[in-house]
């Protein structure tokens, strides 16, 4: 009954992530944390950022939230990108994702940078849903921003 | 005789639109209604033929505009059962409620002299609202309480969203100065027992403010019969244009109330030190007025008069029952508010077990069906009902039985699509 448009928005991989919710469930010992709210729909998401001992590499993120298929799938896909990723490599991924989400369907996205999240390219044609897809990424951006700068090595003379 | 829906539909050009390659099914009238040609024509006629500012200028166009503007006021006054000097143009219901809250605030700061004593609030005084209010009838009162030191209290709803009237009786005591509540809930579609609440307020001398945004489009509204002190309504929800609403106030109250916005057109004499204000409604209409919008809103009221508000109400209630009955039969759907058979307007909000409202709305949009998703500017009510958000379908005079059925059929496929 639904058209191809809807199926291209709710792709198989998106549906699967929205149910599996990789990384869901907040863990303790976060280096930083961010709570984001989408005021139009009331959706909420909390992201804990876990980093290694030197603070320059992401161990993982853990998260908790409620929201639509798009926001939950997007956060789950983002989680899969981050394990073992140098903090310095977060920014290019954020930029690539944001560019794709602002492209109104014009940019497909680089799977090397965005992994499964390239499947969210179709969301960018639905302006009202871009915020849903961005929720987790905005939380990550905020959490990374709170990390101490890399040169703030307290042990160094 | 019932409304001739097909005939009415011909007056609404937006209904010719297609969405997702299907004819538009517009079930978001509680957010903003569609506009009939008569309203579009009135607005266009003003700009084409009479464009000018009112209550100033000696030229012919200005005179014609002023006459239309004031006769629009007369028309709206008749539509709600008020006198013309009791109808104040405002940008919308939010503007009207803020006007009241800031006028009370100004009175509380000592403005308005002795006659403004009724509007003064301070520590120990109470403002009472309900748990089902739209944010527009909640936050202005929260802020007023914050500015004056008064306390804000609320009448709670039960698990089904019903106002707890026994709690209202206990809450509304001698300290209450203002009681503000909605006539029809924009989430539940339920009709508030206005007479009972007004009686409680009268017993303690509190001012009554009625939010009529969701009632004015759907049922005959008579502010004098309801015996409220103030009422607010939104033009664009009752076939009128965006950018205009109405504040109704009892003439004796409006004339005693200090103004909120000040400036041109609302004064008698001005010196470098002070100003004297005109009586109502001019004292609340500072600056250049939304003339085209007022005239078009009167055209909307005229259109509704032509249909007959009693018949509009009858049809609306019928559509509301169709919505509730249809939704209730679908497994995994929780309808908010009154059960089938109980009073409600043509509006139903619901939760789909396992599917987020945004996804419900997206699925329906793919069928050409427009609904509202989110918290509908009523976060506290949703929180009380244990939901972050819901999906809302709302009907109006142009809604057909087939459209409601298409919506029900669509909703019954949502859980399957999302594999719940």
Explain how this protein is built.
The complex is a heterodimer of chains A (157) and B (420). With 157 residues, chain A is α+β, with helices and mostly antiparallel strands. In chain A, 39% of the residues lie in helices and 16% in strands. Chain A has helices at residues 4-9, 12-20, 69-82, 90-101, 111-114, 130-145; strands at 32-38, 43-51, 58-66. In chain A, strands 1-2-3 form a three-stranded antiparallel β-sheet, with helices on one face. In chain A, a hairpin with a 4-residue loop joins strand 1 and strand 2. Chain A is globular, with a radius of gyration of 16 Å. The mean pLDDT of chain A is 91. By secondary structure, chain B is α/β, with parallel strands linked by helices. Chain B has two domains: 5-30 and 309-417, Alpha-Beta Complex (Aspartate Aminotransferase, domain 1); 43-305, Aspartate Aminotransferase, domain 2. Chain B contains 14 helices and 17 strands. Chain B has helices at 5-9, 37-50, 60-80, 93-108, 139-148, 165-171, 194-204, 223-226, 251-254, 291-307, 309-328, 357-365, 379-384, 401-417, and strands at residues 18-19, 22-23, 25-26, 87-90, 126-130, 151-155, 176-182, 207-211, 230-234, 245-249, 267-270, 275-277, 333-335, 347-352, 369-370, 372-374, 390-394. In chain B, a hairpin with a 2-residue loop joins strand 1 (18-19) and strand 2. Chain B is globular and about 70 Å long. The chains are: A alpha+beta (157), B alpha/beta (420). Chains A and B meet through helix 1 of A and helix 12 of B.
List descriptors.
A: 157 residues; alpha+beta; Sufe protein. Chain: A; three-stranded antiparallel β-sheet; B: 420 residues; Aspartate Aminotransferase, domain 2; 2 domains; four-stranded antiparallel β-sheet; 16% strand
Quick summary:
The complex is a heterodimer of chains A (157) and B (420). Chain A is of the alpha+beta class and 157 residues long.
């Amino acid at each position: 009954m639904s058209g191809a448009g809807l199926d291209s928005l709710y792709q198989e991989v998106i549906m699967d992530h929205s149910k599996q919710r990789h990384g869901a469930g907040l863990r303790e010992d976060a280096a930083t944390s961010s709570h984001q709210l989408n005021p139009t729909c009331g959706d909420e998401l909390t992201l804990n950022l876990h980093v290694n001992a030197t603070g320059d590499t992401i161990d993982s993120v853990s998260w908790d939230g409620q929201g639509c298929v798009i926001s939950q799938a997007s956060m789950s896909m983002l989680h899969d990108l981050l394990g073992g990723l140098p903090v310095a490599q977060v920014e290019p991924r954020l930029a690539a994702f944001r560019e794709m989400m602002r492209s109104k369907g014009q940019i497909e996205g680089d799977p090397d940078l965005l992994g499964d999240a390239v499947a969210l390219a179709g969301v960018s044609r639905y302006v009202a849903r871009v915020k849903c897809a961005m929720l987790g990424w905005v939380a990550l951006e905020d959490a990374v921003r709170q990390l101490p700068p890399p040169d703030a090595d307290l042990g160094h003379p | 005789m019932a409304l001739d829906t097909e005939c009415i539909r011909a007056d609404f050009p937006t209904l010719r639109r297609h969405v997702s390659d299907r004819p538009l099914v517009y079930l978001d009238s509680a957010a903003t209604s569609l506009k009939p040609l008569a309203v579009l024509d009135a607005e266009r006629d003003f700009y084409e033929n009479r464009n000018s500012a009112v209550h100033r200028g000696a030229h012919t166009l200005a005179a014609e505009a002023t006459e239309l503007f004031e006769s629009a006021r007369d028309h709206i006054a008749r539509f709600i059962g008020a006198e013309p000097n009791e109808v104040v143009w405002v940008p919308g219901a939010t503007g009207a409620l803020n006007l009241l809250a800031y006028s009370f605030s100004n009175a509380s700061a000592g403005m308005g002299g002795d006659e403004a004593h009724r509007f003064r609030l301070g520590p120990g005084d109470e403002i009472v609202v309900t748990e089902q209010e739209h944010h527009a009838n909640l936050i202005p009162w929260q802020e007023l309480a914050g500015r004056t030191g008064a306390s804000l209290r609320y009448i709670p709803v039960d698990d089904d969203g019903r106002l707890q009237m026994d709690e209202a009786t206990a809450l509304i005591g001698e300290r209450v100065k203002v009681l503000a509540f909605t006539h029809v809930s924009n989430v539940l579609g339920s009709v508030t027992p206005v007479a009972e609440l007004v009686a409680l307020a009268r017993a303690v001398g509190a001012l009554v403010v009625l939010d009529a945004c969701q009632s004015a489009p759907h049922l005959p509204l008579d502010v004098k019969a309801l015996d409220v002190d103030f009422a607010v309504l939104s033009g664009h929800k009752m076939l009128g244009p965006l950018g205009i609403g109405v504040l109704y106030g009892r003439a004796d109250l409006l004339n005693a109330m200090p103004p909120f916005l000040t400036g041109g057109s609302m004064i008698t004499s001005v010196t470098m030190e002070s100003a004297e204000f005109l009586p109502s409604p001019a004292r609340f209409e500072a600056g250049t007025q939304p003339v085209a919008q007022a005239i078009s809103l009167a055209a909307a009221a005229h259109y509704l008069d032509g249909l007959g508000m009693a018949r509009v109400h009858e049809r609306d209630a019928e559509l509301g029952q169709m919505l509730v009955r249809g939704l209730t039969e679908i497994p995994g759907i929780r309808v908010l508010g009154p059960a089938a058979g109980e009073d409600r307007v043509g509006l139903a909000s619901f939760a789909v077990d396992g599917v987020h409202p945004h996804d419900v709305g997206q699925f329906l949009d793919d069928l050409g069906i427009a609904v509202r998703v989110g918290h509908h500017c009523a976060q506290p009510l949703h929180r009380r009902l244990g939901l972050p958000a819901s999906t809302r379908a709302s009907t109006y005079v142009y809604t057909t039985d087939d459209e409601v059925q298409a919506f029900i059929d669509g909703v019954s496929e949502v859980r399957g699509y999302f594999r719940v």
